[in-house]
Write a structure and sequence with these properties.
mainly alpha; Rossmann fold; three-stranded parallel β-sheet; Tyrosyl-Transfer RNA Synthetase
Length: about 375
């Protein structure tokens, strides 16, 4: 956590409660939490913010870790969801592929249930104000904080080349969140630290320059927050271990059937059935079916081949409706592009307002 600078004698401490009480309209206090930001205040109609990178085909980790929770939350507040094409530039260097992936993310998210009547859906790069805000925030972000980021350390340990954009990723993410006065950020477990960093950076800015930013909260769906990949590690495009949401049935079936199992025979009981990779994935997709097959595996008499076949059937059926919806969207790309354009206009209006507030606080206006 950041160490906050000492305040001048008699100067009030700047907290999220101060900000919410003075900056935002239509506020209600819903909780009092002991944390470094003081009392937490949310607006009566909370704003939800989340983004997803167009760095490759979306997969089960994206869907269960971020997309499904975000889609559920669009019913509970004002949702701002964006395609993080700026962030994708840290690892994807093919411009044509980025354009294709960006459209694919839009198709996938809309097919899976994002409702543009309930959520503001847009491309990150259509709101360039976020880059200016990232610079303002970076001037108060210690190097040590970025060096402690789990995602940076994990990628570095795996030998993935590190550029400045990847190192400074948490600062741009903080700008993404803060520029829309976001209250709630649905994330996977691996991104929780970045939201905590956002909170720290925002509080430090508030203490340095006065009441400026709303302090956000992460929301994590515990039982599906971390989805394992086909190698047992966290599912990630960076690690090449994903199972895509949409794709060729034959190729995806082959990928699922290739999951590595141990050498125990079908007849042997498996007292550690909960550690089986196929069981873990099955429980992510359908918890009740997963628990049923977990007990069957634990008791003995179940072959791994049959287990993997069941996993594929449950997975394929789960996205049947979304596949049909996606085909309809592909045939109506004008609609998809209009959704993004309308969303960008709404997002930029809010971003301009918050950036102006930050510029004024920092003495740039």
């Amino acid at each position: 956590m950041l160490r906050h600078s000492k305040r001048e004698a008699g100067k009030p401490r700047v907290t999220s409660s101060n900000l919410a009480g003075k900056r935002l309209n239509n506020q209600i206090r819903i909780s009092e939490t002991s944390c470094n930001s003081g009392l937490l205040f949310y607006p009566a109609y909370m704003r939800i913010l989340s983004g997803i990178q167009p760095s490759g085909a979306l997969h089960l980790g994206n869907y269960f870790g971020m997309m499904r929770p975000a889609i559920e939350l669009q019913e509970k507040g004002e949702a701002f969801y964006f395609i993080a094409d700026y962030h994708s530039m840290t690892s994807l260097f093919d411009a044509a592929e980025r354009r294709k992936n960006t459209l694919d993310v839009a198709l996938d998210f809309l097919a899976c249930g994002l409702d543009p009547k309930r959520a503001v859906f847009f491309k990150q790069s259509d709101v360039p104000e976020v880059c200016e805000l990232a610079w303002l925030l970076s001037t108060l972000t210690p190097m040590g904080l970025l060096e402690r980021a789990h995602s940076f350390k994990d990628k570095s340990a795996k030998g993935i080349p590190i550029n400045h954009g990847l190192f400074a990723y948490p600062v741009l993410m903080a700008a993404d969140i803060l520029i829309y006065d976001s209250n709630v950020v649905p994330v996977g477990q691996d991104q929780k630290q970045h939201v905590e960093m956002t909170r720290d950076i925002a509080i430090k800015f508030n203490e340095q320059y006065g009441q400026t930013f709303v302090i956000p909260e992460p929301q994590i769906k515990g039982e599906t927050a971390k989805v394992p990949g086909i190698d047992g590690e966290k599912m990630s495009k960076s690690y090449g271990n994903t199972i895509e949401i949409f794709g060729d049935e034959k190729a995806l079936r082959k990928k699922v059937m290739a999951l590595k199992m141990d050498s125990r025979t079908p007849a042997e009981p498996k007292p550690d059935a909960e550690l089986n990779l196929a069981i873990q994935l099955l429980k992510v997709i359908d918890a009740s079916v997963g628990r049923e097959w977990e007990e069957r595996l634990r008791a003995g008499g179940l072959g791994y081949g049959d287990l993997k076949k069941q996993l594929f059937e449950v997975y394929w059926e789960h996205f049947a409706t979304a596949r049909a919806k996606r085909a309809e969207l592909v045939a109506n790309l004008d609609y998809v592009n209009k959704v993004l354009a309308d969303g960008s206009a709404k997002a930029r209006a809010k971003a301009t307002e918050v950036l102006k507030r930050a510029r004024k606080a920092g003495g740039l206006e």
